TrEMBL record, chain A:
Domain Glucose-methanol-choline oxidoreductase C-terminal: 381-517
Annotated PANTHER family: LONG-CHAIN-ALCOHOL OXIDASE
Domain of life: Bacteria
Positions of the Glucose-methanol-choline oxidoreductase N-terminal domain: 78-297
Family annotation (Gene3D superfamilies): FAD/NAD(P)-binding domain
Similarity annotation: Belongs to the GMC oxidoreductase family.
Protein name, per record: GMC family oxidoreductase
Keyword rRNA-binding assigned: no
Keywords, in A-Z order: FAD, Flavoprotein, Oxidoreductase
UniProtKB/TrEMBL annotation, chain B:
InterPro entries: TAT_signal
Protein name, per record: Twin-arginine translocation pathway signal protein
Organism annotation: Marinobacter salinexigens
Length: 530, 214
């Protein structure tokens, strides 16, 4: 156990950390580089640039929460650590968006699954978007480096019963499955990754790269919202930011001006396109905020004969890629199979029901297994993704149309998940769909899957992976940044987060973000020091 | 001073945009709701957060409502028994306290949702609270304090099974915030057979100890 908390110690040793809520007067600061966002991309970038001797300012809209705050409490964590208090949805309200909003970003609340970008995806990027420098061979050293830095390795402990359902079902059906690599060190196998790791075992940005940057004199502002990048001729001169009150949601009225030689947007695939749109960044081909991907997720739950206790144990340890690329990289929609953890609030929010039926479902939680499918979007002409836009108050939204191509994949995924659960011995299975009953046989369940309307709101859809919106590409006509995350038109602006992916990843994206951010930051450090 | 002025400006601006965006909306259902929502704004339902509400909260509670209005609280006093269902205690005093506590947690949750989703919920709650739309859209004939649990359940079923996506969306919004606030609360964990965080971890971890430094 990490008895000594790195953040608490850092505070004592004089880290330069400013809570926006404590500011009472407008401020101006200056550094070599201002980085907006402290998640997988921002943290990695900050550590590498600060270690190279550059002065760095980190800007985070959410607040700094760490071990003292992580009490394995769902309600407090969803309210404080997630975007819009866990209520973020797509524009039409049909897809729930799970996304972090705190120091460490989504890495503070993710379930630690750490996959390299699939080779099929990287090769597709080279073929389709001219990203020849991102071949699997060229990227391998960057994945190696991040895997070492973040202690990423396949989970060596037995999967919890929830994950074991997926393993057993795949095994029985002859579907391939594997053990998930996780970014943990000394993990207690408790099951609370999604509400802030209570033991400091998770090697997210919060306890790795953000402290690494702070130990090299970086200055972290939290509770500070990046509003707008301000130009002077063809360069960005400064960032305008608004301090938030201690509640984390209300601007206090204090503004902070941050000047720098270079600016890195790492505010997520919703936040970064939003910032660029608010800033009126030159966009001659209207590419900012386009091709936004989410790995649309649908879910089935099963009642198992033995206790599953889906709230305990490493939340994700088994996956199946059997159907991910089986139809070809750009064929019918592929999907990755995983399981989600189910604590009471999560379960009550995901299962769409009320009254007696809901009480019965929840009473069965200890025997409940859930399986999810991550649909690989963005590889097919009929999957062009969504669009990031701005609300009247300047905040970003995601408008994501679910095309017939995706619905077909989601329906197939329902079939596969039900097959897996019955093969693993499920007594009955239910789709997370407003029209679904419990089905006690695979035949009944499959008949229902063929019949239920695949429609927005009726199918419960989720996303925990936001990607794209500032896509990489060789051609400025179809992309926002080049293969190094450098903006095509603004010389002192880079984007270092999941928004640069030109398609979805086809796997949980954190390691893809870490590796690309490390690669692009090493280049940026050389450039700025030269 | 400045921030206060900004807030006032922001609020009146948001209301204006609210009406315009509704009138612009293309979906037939949305247009209808929007027209009526505008009427709601003009006829002045309770629009201020309820603040401290002694008689609806549990006796010991001094919870300050930051989003829900007195009308919203009455709405949820009718809906929560239909949503939490048999999970609520039967003993009247305990039942009243469980409902009141759930509504307080709904309010504190919504406070963290931020302005955009608060605006969406405000439209939904106004629509349900305003007599004309309550009757025509939700097809609930009595005012909420007079709605029985069976009637509230029937309303939820209508919106759950409706072929209009907007009503499904309203159903999900109402049940999700209520289900999470109810089943997610420590005193109700037993209803989902959840024993809570492992005791050995609670005993060993510094953040659970009363006295600790930094």
């Amino acid at each position: 156990m990490q008895l000594k908390d790195r953040i608490a110690q850092g505070y004592e040793s004089g880290w330069n950390v400013t809570d926006g809520a404590t500011l009472t007067e407008n401020q101006i600061y200056e550094a070599d580089v201002v980085i907006i966002g402290t998640g997988a991309g921002g943290g990695t970038t900050a550590e590498i640039l600060a270690q190279s001797g550059l002065s760095v300012i980190l800007v985070e809209e959410g607040r700094l929460y760490y071990q003292k705050d992580f009490k394995m409490d769902e309600l407090a964590s969803y309210a404080n650590l997630y975007q819009e208090g866990m209520s973020r949805v797509t524009k039409d309200g049909a897809i729930a968006i799970l996304q972090g909003r705190c120091v460490g970003g989504s890495t503070t609340v993710n379930w630690t699954s750490s996959f390299r970008t699939p080779e099929e995806t990287l090769n597709h990027w080279a073929d389709r978007f001219g990203l020849d420098s991102l071949t699997p061979d060229a990227m391998a050293p960057w994945f190696d480096g991040r895997e070492q830095r973040l202690n990423i390795e396949p989970w060596t402990v037995d999967p919890n019963p929830n994950n074991d359902v997926l393993r057993q079902g795949c095994e029985k059906l002859g579907y391939s499955w594997k053990v998930i690599p996780r970014n943990v060190k000394g993990c207690w196998n408790l099951g609370y990754c999604g509400v802030g790791c209570p033991t400091n075992a998770k090697q997210g940005s919060l306890i790795t790269t953000v402290p690494g940057a702070l130990e090299n004199n970086a200055h972290l502002f939290h509770g500070l919202r990046a509003e707008k990048l301000i130009f002077n001729q063809d360069r960005i001169e400064h960032l305008e930011a608004s301090a938030m009150s201690a509640d984390g949601v209300t601007p206090s009225g204090v503004t902070v001006t941050l000047k720098a030689r270079h600016f890195v947007a790492a505010a997520s695939a919703i936040g970064s396109p939003g910032l660029l749109l608010r800033s009126d960044i030159p966009d001659p081909y209207d590419r900012i905020g386009k091709r936004s991907f989410i790995h649309p997720v649908n879910v089935t739950v099963a009642e198992m004969p033995e206790k599953v206790d889906p709230f305990y144990g490493a939340p994700q340890s088994i996956y199946s890629d059997h159907f991910n690329f089986s139809g070809g990289v750009d064929g019918p929609a592929g999907y990755k199979l995983e399981v989600p953890p189910m604590h009471p609030a999560m379960a009550a929010g995901v299962i769409p029901n009320h009254g007696k039926a809901q009480a019965e479902s929840l009473a069965g939680l200890p025997w409940t297994n859930a399986v999810l499918a991550l649909i690989r979007d963005g590889f097919h002409p009929e999957s062009q993704g969504g669009t990031i836009g701005l609300r009247d108050d300047g905040s970003p939204y995601l408008d994501y149309p679910v095309t017939d191509y995706l619905w077909e994949g989601l329906r197939r995924a329902f079939h596969t998940m039900a097959e897996v659960q019955f093969a693993a011995g499920a007594k009955r299975v239910r789709l997370m769909h407003l029209d679904s009953d419990w089905y006690t046989s695979l035949a009944d369940c499959k008949a229902a899957i063929d019949k239920v309307p695949m429609e927005l709101h009726r199918v419960r859809l989720f996303t925990a992976h936001q990607m794209g919106g500032c896509g990489m590409g060789a051609k400025p006509e179809e992309s926002v940044v080049n293969a190094f995350g450098e903006h095509h038109h603004i010389s002192n602006l880079s984007v270092h987060d999941a928004s640069i992916f030109p398609t979805s990843i086809g796997a949980n994206p954190q390691l893809s973000v870490y590796a690309l951010a490390a690669r692009n930051s090493a280049r940026l450090a050389n450039k700025l020091k030269g | 001073m400045t921030s206060r002025t900004d807030e006032t400006l922001h609020q009146s601006d948001a209301n204006g945009l609210d009406r315009r965006s509704f009138l612009k909306a293309g979906l037939g259902g949305t247009l209808l709701l929007g027209t009526v929502s505008m009427t709601v704004g003009l006829t002045g339902c309770a629009t201020q957060p309820a603040g401290m509400v002694g008689d609806t909260s549990s006796p010991a509670s001094n919870y300050q409502f930051r989003f829900l209005t007195a009308d919203d609280i009455a709405l949820f006093e009718s809906l929560v028994p239909a949503i939490a269902g048999p999970g609520l205690p039967e003993q009247p005093e305990a039942r009243r306290a469980a409902i009141a506590g759930t509504i307080e947690r709904i309010d504190s949750g919504i406070h963290k949702f931020g302005p955009a989703n608060q605006k969406e919920l405000r439209r939904l709650f106004d629509l349900l609270n305003f007599g004309l739309t309550r009757v025509t859209i939700a097809r609930v004939w009595s005012s909420w304090p007079n709605v029985t649990t069976d009637e509230a359940h029937a309303f939820l079923e209508r919106w759950r099974t409706s072929s209009i996506g907007l009503f499904n969306n309203g159903y999900i919004a109402l049940t999700k915030i209520s289900n999470v606030a109810f089943y997610g609360y420590e005193e109700n964990w037993h209803l989902s057979g959840y024993p809570g965080p492992p005791q050995y971890a609670v005993d060993a971890l510094p953040q659970f100890k009363q006295t600790r430094s930094a």
